Recover the amino acids of this structure.
């Protein structure tokens, strides 16, 4: 197992970082809550071919692995980019892993090119599907429980606008026919999506930490930067440990998905639990470092707290994944992530 990125993987991470930096910022991240959209970043990602990164070449993709895709998602999470890209690539990952050959031929080329975008959603108690950015998607991959995943054409459902604690993205509630079942190994496919969620949470945690460290260097109290005081410096050090620990878990899970898929269930649950816990604690600690200004609407740190809180609960909570990891490790009864939570 490699414990570092190779040159190609570093190039992917740097390229996406530069692309995001030139097309998106935290001002744009607020636009969903204001009823607006910013599709410039998604258009740039599609034009650069990132949508098809992990889709097999025979279906129009580049055929790279989940590890490479997780690096892209981490950079988008760091920028709090909207979920148009995530929903599309997650749909592609699930269909590629669980669909029949005919289903793959029918749906994956459009996902890879961005011409017929997909997205993912979770079936709620009232029968509706909570969908990420469903207004722009042609396909909806809906998750109901651990073993039932269906694909529905977006044109066949009725959609209503949804609301979320996370104001940086759009949610839609879809009602309609259940769609086609994906028959193969859906649990393993959903584990791959969990790894992508964990990668996004690492990006969220890293940016929140960077904001806190920058503020601790600039803000002065009693003639000294607040970062010079142990209470603040130790808090920032703890943030770094959590971010790097979560990143290691995600990189490990991505490598396992690509090279030793039989070990993916445990690796995916560990990655999701560690990254979700890190994102929440780092974001809330960063808010504390900012003091009073961190609690204002104008400062962006609350956006990271919101994203961390919601993404941590999508598809499976920290407690559910800890129980599952304990069971898979032989430390307790294996738990199925039965109830997949929307936003």
């Amino acid at each position: 197992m490699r414990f570092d990125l190779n040159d190609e993987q570093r190039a992917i991470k740097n390229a996406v970082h530069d692309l995001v930096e030139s097309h998106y910022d935290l001002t744009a991240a607020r636009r969903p809550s204001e009823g607006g959209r910013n599709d410039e970043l998604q258009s740039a990602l599609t034009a650069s071919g990132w949508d098809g990164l992990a889709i097999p070449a025979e279906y129009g993709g580049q055929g790279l692995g989940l590890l490479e895709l997780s690096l892209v998602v981490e950079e988008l999470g760091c920028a709090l980019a909207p979920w148009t890209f995530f929903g599309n690539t997650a749909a592609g990952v699930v269909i590629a892993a669980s669909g029949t050959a005919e289903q793959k031929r029918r749906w994956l080329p459009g996902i890879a090119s961005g011409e017929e975008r997909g997205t993912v959603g979770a079936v709620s108690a009232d029968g509706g599907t909570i969908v990420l950015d469903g207004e722009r998607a042609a396909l909806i991959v809906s998750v109901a429980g651990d073993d039932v995943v269906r694909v529905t054409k977006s044109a066949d459902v009725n959609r209503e606008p949804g609301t979320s604690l996370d104001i940086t993205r759009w949610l839609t509630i879809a009602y309609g026919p259940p769609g086609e079942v994906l028959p193969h190994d859906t649990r393993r496919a959903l584990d791959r999506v969990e790894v992508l969620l964990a990668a996004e949470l690492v990006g969220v945690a890293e940016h929140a930490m960077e904001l806190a460290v920058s503020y601790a260097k600039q803000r002065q109290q009693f003639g000294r930067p607040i970062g010079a005081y142990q209470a603040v410096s130790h808090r920032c050090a703890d943030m770094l440990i959590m971010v790097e620990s979560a990143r290691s878990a995600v990189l490990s899970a991505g490598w396992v998905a690509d090279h030793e898929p039989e070990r993916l269930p445990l690796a995916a649950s560990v990655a999701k639990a560690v990254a979700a816990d890190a994102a929440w604690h780092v974001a809330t600690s960063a808010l504390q470092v900012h003091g009073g200004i961190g609690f204002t609407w104008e400062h962006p740190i609350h956006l990271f707290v919101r994203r961390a809180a919601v993404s941590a609960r999508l598809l499976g909570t920290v407690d559910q994944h800890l129980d599952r990891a304990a069971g898979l490790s032989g430390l307790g009864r294996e738990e199925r992530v039965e109830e997949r939570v929307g936003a």
About this structure: The chain has a mean pLDDT of 89. The chain has eleven helices and nine strands. The beta strands are 118-123, 129-132, 139-144, 148-153, 158-161, 171-175, 180-181, 220-221, 224-225.
